[in-house]
Amino acid sequence: MNIIVTGGAGFIGSNFVFHMLKAHPEYRIICLDKLTYAGNLSTLEPVMANPNFRFVKADICDRDAVFQLFEEEHPDIVVNFAAESHVDRSIEDPGIFLQTNIVGTQVLMDACRKYGIKRYHQVSTDEVYGDLPLDRPDLFFTEETPLHTSSPYSSSKAAADLLVQAYHRTYGLPITISRCSNNYGPYHFPEKLIPLMIANALADKPLPVYGEGINVRDWLYVEDHCKAIDLIIHNGREGEVYNIGGHNEMRNIDIVKIICKELNKPESLITYVTDRKGHDMRYAIDPTKIHNELGWLPETKFADGIKLTIQWYLENRSWWETIISGEYQNYYEKMYSNR
Ligand code: NAD
Ligand code: TYD
Fold it and tell me: I want to staple 206 with a disulfide (CB 3.0 to 4.6 A). Which of 271, 304, 319, 335 is the partner?
């Protein structure tokens, strides 16, 4: 089995590459990644010498490069993680989100049509459903919930999902889509909530909580997400959408307090800053379909996963310290100074 994994130098994609090489040592995994600010080749260092792994630096929007790779590798499956993924960046500058997340998806699917494929899997997000009110804890996102997006990021992901479904209906492309809630774990880029708070707390820097910190996210350990995608590409039904989430809703402020406690840092570091524009209040996934059809259940409880994650950041300081010492400083200055 030849599998192209796009975006495999990013957070979830790299965890997926590691998972697949371990779970299916006989498969060949080809990682295609543009190495944007969010992609790190050093992350893939442990598998670079594996004869069943190949890394190719390319943009999913580059039709010639993508078609050339299909010509060389004749993949059986494509799993598309490649995306611009940060909501705050999409609010600052939406253009690249539309380009990579929508046009890039189209280019990949055109290659699948031309060369043939057993499965094209689109890694999507629960953010395509918009948000839920805080005072209705009985409501959850199901696969039937209408798409209703808030940010340029989520709009670009929803547009891609619609295009993927159109390629299934119009051209019969064998597709699946997964929509997962917020992930956390090793190799999470330090601009996102959990790694940002860990890095700042370790440096005794302010912990910038947007608004009142009462927004709710449904957190899933990244390894559980990878296992779900593995199940979907093998056993999921063609043309179907699968929601992935672990019924682990947490308020942002509570996450930040847990991180303070685990690192033995004072909560006085917490600083409330101006809220995100259009900030989604609550995400919550109903994972009944993937559980009933594919037997998937999350394995890592948040109480354990957050400890594992913090431990990983403590043991892998050079990975994230290299990132935050570079271009990231300009980003941080732009987004957080005078906020
Ligand atoms: P990430 O930002 O950490 O990684 C994205 C990767 O894609 C990087 O390696 C980057 O270099 C690569 N990339 C970006 N543009 C590219 C292009 N034009 N061509 C080739 N490669 C390109 O993102 P992530 O958090 O790992 O998310 C991966 C996928 O999962 C995304 O599609 C995202 O929408 C989805 N998702 C993320 C979460 C989450 O909590 N992080 C939750 C649900 C879904
Ligand atoms: P984030 O990790 O950006 O994921 P998403 O917006 O895709 O859910 O943010 C998670 C939550 O944390 C979100 O409600 C915004 C909030 N947040 C902060 O309060 N402070 C921060 O510095 C960041 C990056 C996020």
Answer: 271
